[in-house]
Amino acid sequence: MDMLRQGMIDEKTALKRMEPGKLDELLHPVFDKQALKNAKVIAKGLPASPGAAAGKIVFFAEDAESWAEKRKRVILVRIETSPEDLRGMNVAQGILTARGGMTSHAAVVARGMGKCCVSGAGEIKVDYKERTVEMKGKVYKEGDWISLNGSTGEVYEGEVPTVDADLSGDFSKIMELAEKYTQVDVRTNADTPKDARVARRFGAKGIGLCRTEHMFFEGERIKAMREMILSKDEEGRREALKKLLPMQRSDFEGIFEAMDGYGVTIRLLDPPLHEFVPHQLATQKEMATEMGLSIDEVKSACDALEEFNPMLGHRGCRLGCTYPEITEMQARAIIEAALNIKAKGCTVIPEIMVPLVGVIEELKLQAQIIKATAEQVFAERGDRVDYKIGTMIEVPRAALTADRIAEVADFFSFGTNDLTQMTFGYSRDDAGKFLKIYLERGILKNDPFQILDQEGVGQLVRIGTEKGRSTKPSLKVGICGEHGGEPSSVKFCASIGMNYVSCSPYRVPIARVAAAQAAIE
Description:
There is one protein chain. By secondary structure, the chain is of the alpha/beta class. It has 23 helices and 21 strands. The protein has an eight-stranded mixed β-sheet with strand order 2-12-11-4-5-6-7-3. An eight-stranded parallel beta barrel has the order 14-15-16-17-18-19-20-21, surrounded by six helices. A three-stranded antiparallel β-sheet has the order 8-9-10, with no helix packed on it. Helix 8 (169-181) crosses helix 23, helix 10 (219-230) runs antiparallel to helix 11 (234-258) and helix 12 (281-291) crosses helix 13 (295-305). The longest helix is centred in the middle third of the chain and has 25 residues, at 234-258.
């Protein structure tokens, strides 16, 4: 930027010389360089979400919350995280997990929150019962201080002082340059109005992925969700869904308002239902009392939901096809929220995304339910709002039959986390066990969950885009997997003519510079 100001280089050269990933370091706290020289490394994992954090070890989400309320800084240490841990992750300074790759639950959620995370630290031994974690042969107890470097994956003993991020004047100038030259829009993956506002401040032009399941884990919501799952019939499910409707509607209103004038892509319920049910005996007993069931009934219902391979099981659009009432509730919440915010004078552009479609019939069925529900709401309210129905292309079969799927879809969004998982046959949560060795031995050049595999997965993305547009030339195409914030992957998306990329809020500036570089190159 100094050279640009002095007239030694022009704007395009300045942009081309940027290393987009380096911008990340401007957005997050870093360790004090002097203090880091004496810090003792006690574990190493994957640099899942950048930044620096120090805190006292806690092992459970509820403990993280109660300690945070007492103004104690904590690091949440888990074998792996699930949506049940969201509240603890939210208040923790950082997250450390023994399992999971760069697109594991902990990694993706931490990046969305702009929170430091080290995942897949396979050598640490977590003992929930004793509330201890063993690192480098030493046992650390709950309450002991550790520090995480989310940019390198290193874990340090004790409290290493941090320095806050400094968004200097150059940062905004770089963003202005990126805006001037880019031809691809950058959207964000955001599940809350707060995340949406952060991303918009960084220049995001809409939301490419709003995960509705993350809205179900707070307070009374999880109870209503569990009630719906454990209900024995459709009538019981509908009763529970009635409780969830106003909560979902309120969340969507906040997000639509934050993104006034820009498109908001909302993904219908995606994860397998077993992620929502209580796994601890105390919570199961509480659930049994509330629902008037025996503890055995609750236990057997929870056990029945367990799957051998839940990532390939009863999830995504398969849930909506099996329980259409879930799709009805979510469609109603989206359309009602859109009308409410339209009434406030905002420009609302809802895009409803059906996940994990493999055959056109799945999308047809879901689209029929969405359209019928929307017409019902329009009739009730005497008002209308334009909306789109699209799908997430994340099953290889969907990419190969994209010309058929485009007959029904208004837009495609490539979910490259799952598409990578299914194309390679690697579990994104367990691949950490061998990926490190694969990279060391040169079997793979890069972790395909971090950098898009252009030769294999990229071919499916290209085929899906071309086939979709052969049926519908105006088809809007984007990407919402974590690759949407990785520079070389962003450039690939630009090269095949995608309309937008979408990434975590704190990766928006990186994607914007990479998109501008792609346009210049």
